[in-house]
Amino acid sequence: MVMCTTCADTTSFLQKFGGKMAILLGLLCTLCLVGQVLGQDITHEEYLAQIQACPRECRCPPNFPHAVYCDNKGLKSIPTIPPHTWYLYLQNNLIEVLSADALRNATQLRWLNLNRNKITSEGVEEGVLSTKPNLAHLYMDDNLLSSVPSALPASLESLRLSRNRISKIPPGVFIGLDKLNLLDLQANKLMDDAVTEVSLKGLNNLVQINLAKNQLNSMPIGLPPTTTQLFLDGNNIEKIPAGYFKGLPKVAFLRLNYNKLGSSGVPRDVFNVSSILDLQLSHNQLTEVPLIPAGLEHLHLDHNNIKSVSGANICPVAVETMEDSANESVPRLRYLRLDGNDIKPPIPRDVILCFRLLTSIVDDSMRMLVRLVWGLFVLKAVVASPRISRQADLDTYDSANYDVDLDNSNLENQDNYDYEEELTIDDPQIEIGTLAPDYNYPVTEASEEQVEEEEEEELP
Asked: Record's PANTHER family (predicted)?
């Protein structure tokens, strides 16, 4: 079957075929174009105007007229953008100025990607962003910004400014941004005096904030109570104030890897918050395991100075109260990483009895991944566990697989918390419906023998 996709195709067909065949093909192509136009919520007149106004440096797909691709062109300035553009891709160029004149007609803009250019704060012209009432996603990673851009449109939902030179958040810059749910300020030059309650005012519905790889010496103040995902890896934080997380009742994913946290600066019950599901404290200076909340599912304590671990000290509930796995009081911990400490094997029995849902422990005892499956301990309270999925649709900031083969890799030399590449999105999907990226829990791959054992245990 012959299909017509562009008007240029129509011309070639007409030249190749004559008479009635040419007329038929022309009608088919017209129907194709009309169908595409109707599918893109754009009139035929707007469609023609958009295609004809496409900058010569860029690509404007006829079957997707709302998108303009000007990426990887070596551009030093932004060309004049057509009026019906919703998605504009300008990443990987040499652009120094975010020109208000070039974007003057693009009032319908929804998605703007300016990653990896040379835009400075001085190069962001006044009113260039605030005049875009539909702009929902702004990408300005890997530029030369020294301050968070202002003024920003009230329609903004996600703002990505990682790997710039930002040291300042202008007071009130976020006021009115009630739709903003994702703020990425990773790998900048923010210090404690820049991240304050005043500078963060207005983030009333924020879900995810990334302040990793900055110059923070203390926990940031003024975070909105809606915060669910908080990333503070790679700073110089030494202590956490008692009761700090009482102001963050929804925090579920907390990352403090690569800081300077010692047990003296971490109140033992500071993480005892029912909402926390994933807690990462790797590469710090802890000497003790903090109190683990019953609802916690993933705990990363590798590469600290912990010398011992005891179920009596870290179990959030009394073992005798846990009758079976269905009991709501059973701690939900499934994944525990302890390698890179001074803990002498084996893992104490009372730890296993407390955290009965554990399926994976990474430690140094045999330089291998220990997989625990229900049925290993013939106890009344321990029964065969069904295989479960450890996937939650929340976050892709760290796509590293923690369950690595220790025989073929060196955990000590791995930086599993480097967000350098994961946060860069060059050509995002147009259809978006989530508040934050998808989160992939680490999953241990069982051997064939282990799978067979599990299947035998599940047989009646």
From this structure: AGAP008170-PA, KERATOCAN
